Amino acid sequence: MIQQLSVFIENKKGRLAYITKVLAQAGVDIRAMSVADTSDFGILRLIVDNPDKAIEAIKNEGMAVSLTDVLAVGVHDAPGGLAEAANALWSNGISVEYAYAFMKREKDIAYIILRVDDNERAIKVLRENGISLPEEGDIKD
Amino acid sequence: MANYFNEKMETMSRDEMAQVQSERLVKMVERAYNNVPLYRERFKESGVEPGDIKSIEDLNKLPFTTKDDLRDTYPFGMFAVPKEELIRIHASSGTTGKQTVVGYTRHDIDVWAESCARALVSIGGTRSDYVHVSYGYGLFTGGLGLHYGAEMLGATAIPVSSGNTKRQVQILKDYGSDIICCTPSYAMFIGETVRDMGIDPKTLKLRAGYFGAEAWTENMRREIEKILDIKAYDIYGLSEIAGPGVSFECWDQTGMHVNEDWFYPEIIDPDTGRVLPDGQYGELVFTCIGKEALPLVRYRTRDISCLSRKPCPCGRTLVKMAKPKGRTDDMLIIRGINVFPSQVEHVLLSLNMDPNYLIVVDRVGTLDTMEVQVEMTQGVISDTVRDIEAMEHKIAAALQSTLNISAKVRLVEPKSLPRSEGKAIRVIDNRDIK
Q1: Residue B66 CA: distances (Å) to CA of A38, A88, B81, B240, B287
Q2: Which helix H or strand E contains A18, and what residues bound it?
Q3: A91 and A46 in one domain?
Q4: B243 and B288 in contact (C-beta within 8 Å)?
């Protein structure tokens, strides 16, 4: 499992620019991100190289942030790669709350961040289906 | 154990009380008129003379007094006695402007002390109790009020004053304090310190506390009762009228008995000045019928309360006032319903959220709208939109049940709401109503 930062931001101009600048100044590298938005607010979800440093920098700015355990899943970078993992979870009754893609400079593997309702069971199911689950250390660089 | 400090005054019939009040009012009006230039002027403007006031029924012929009157005559302009007769001065903190200064004769100090002594007896206080006073001592009336009350009762006052909380706890423990008096927020802080010092509150002798001088909720009462393992009682007062003890909760915890033989209460419509019947909320007004140095006539407290003369199980016939539910200065009327920012604050606290909010009132067509913006609390934020929307709905539902009015709730970023000079701005009213 890896840790995701969830930052509460209002739907106002310049908020993304602001928060990414805060992270840049703290020397935090963003590995993956997605934004869930409504008309009034958004949740910025981030996977970073150093969650502790990122949290500290964001809290220092007085912003609301929390940590959530999510799964990083490595799938074959070919048609049907993600379908295999999604199917395994679905057929075992595990719901995916949200998912987003992950940049990684490797040839054959695409990484996906998954937020599911039951991490432990999801890990078991994915492993049984031979799907790779990189850990925190694997995605640092 | 005595049930009353002054049984005669505290349990007399309504008729007898009206008689006492009438006699005292007549004397007091004469004193105010003869010795305070402002009152002489005001009475003339209103076309009343002291001779027109024959009983308490005539009180509504008299003009009101406001905090501004005290400020305009700062510092001693409304005192009705020569300084030889004064024995004490107190003053308000003056956080919202120039401070207001109040004076007391020996009789006034006795009146005030007895008010507090009556209060202490009503919650089971006796001569053998240690009364731990953690209100600040000084110009502020909190400390010395309860101190003199405890002494008048014959209990033992411990003048700890506020601050140095660990020492407070040490004294509670070592001296075996029975009753504590302080602000409710300080009581919570003392309770937390007791816990942090690893002391089981059940091992303390402390059994009751009088808390006042700031607004507090039933939630807070329960928390204080739990953390200190005591009964927590409300005490009300303001320096202009005397100080703490103007009214007090008895063991029944259902409203505060007003020492009405000295402080005559009325509830008025803040807009029209009309006197409202028992049970109806309005602005609380006091006339100091039993005081010499500062005989305030119909002083507008700006506190919103209501009165009840229903029989109390404690046996006191003294009229009861409800815990003030806000101030006229910050009352909003939205779709005909009175809304106090403090109510919003209580709702947020009850949901474990920091009370950083802004009420935005607007008018769309002929309909008032209310939006409550609430700063996201660190530690409450979730990673899903669904959770955050659920939280908004939860706050809205709690507001609806407390305020009886629907409000749109919008969560905003921490520290994003406007603050001026450190004090938060709570209300923006965009309605253009003339």
Answers
A1: 49, 75, 20, 10, 12
A2: helix A15-25
A3: no
A4: no
Answer yes or no: do A8 and B411 touch at CB < 8 A: yes
| A-chain residues near B377 (CB < 8 A) | 64
A68, A83, A112 - which closes a domain:
A68
Domains of chain B: residue spans and CATH: 87-327 (3.40.50.12780), 331-429 (3.30.300.30)
Q: How do beta strands B231-238 and B208-211 pair?
A: parallel
Q: What is the DSSP letter of B400?
A: H
Contact yes or no for B415 and A62 at CB 8 A:
yes
CB distance A64–B378 less than 8 Å? yes
- Give the C-alpha distances (Å, rounded to integers) separating A122 from A127, A138, B234, B324: 8, 19, 55, 55
Interface check for B388 against chain A (CB to CB < 8 A): the answer is yes
Q: Do B413 and A9 touch (CB under 8 A)?
A: yes
A33-64 pLDDT, tens digit each: 999 988 889 999 999 999 999 999 998 888 99
**Residues A53 and A107 reside in one and the same domain:** no
- Is B376 at the interface with chain A, CB within 8 A? yes
Say if residue A93 is in the same domain as residue A59.
no
pTM: 0.69
Kindly list the strands in the beta sheet with B179-182, ordered across the sheet, starting from the edge strand earlier in the chain.
B156-158, B130-133, B179-182, B208-211, B231-238, B243-249, B256-258, B320-321, B307-308
Residue type, B170: Q
Size of interface A-B (CB pairs under 8 A): 55
- Residue B249's Cβ-side half-sphere holds a number of Cα atoms within 13 Å equal to 19
CATH code (residue A28): 3.30.2130.10
Q: Does residue A141 fall inside a structural domain?
A: no
Within 8 A of B389 by CB-CB distance, chain A residues are 38
Name the residue among A41, A45, A65 with its Cβ closest to that of B388: A41
Consecutive sets of 10 residues in chain B, 434 residues long: mean pLDDT of each? 88 97 97 96 95 96 94 94 96 70 97 98 97 94 96 98 92 97 89 91 97 83 94 96 97 97 96 94 96 97 94 96 85 82 86 88 88 87 91 94 91 82 74 63
Question: Does residue A103 form part of some domain?
Answer: yes
Would you call A38 and B411 a contact, using CB atoms and an 8 Å cutoff? no
Closest CA to B308 of B284, B277, B264: B277
Give the residue numbers spanning the domain of A21: 2-68
**CB–CB contact A41 B384 (8 Å):** no
Query: Is the minimum CB–CB distance between B414 and chain A shorter than 8 Å?
Result: yes
State whether residue B360 sits within 8 Å of chain A by CB: no
Domains contained in chain A, number: 2
For chain B, the distance separating the N- and C-terminal CA atoms, rounded to the nearest angstrom, is 59
Judgement on whether residues A59 and A92 belong to the same structural domain of the protein: no
Residue B385, judged by CB atoms within 10 A of its CB (0-12, 13-18, 19+), counts as middle
Residue of A nearest to B374 (CA): A10
Of A20, A37, A68, which one is at a domain's C-terminal end?
Answer: A68
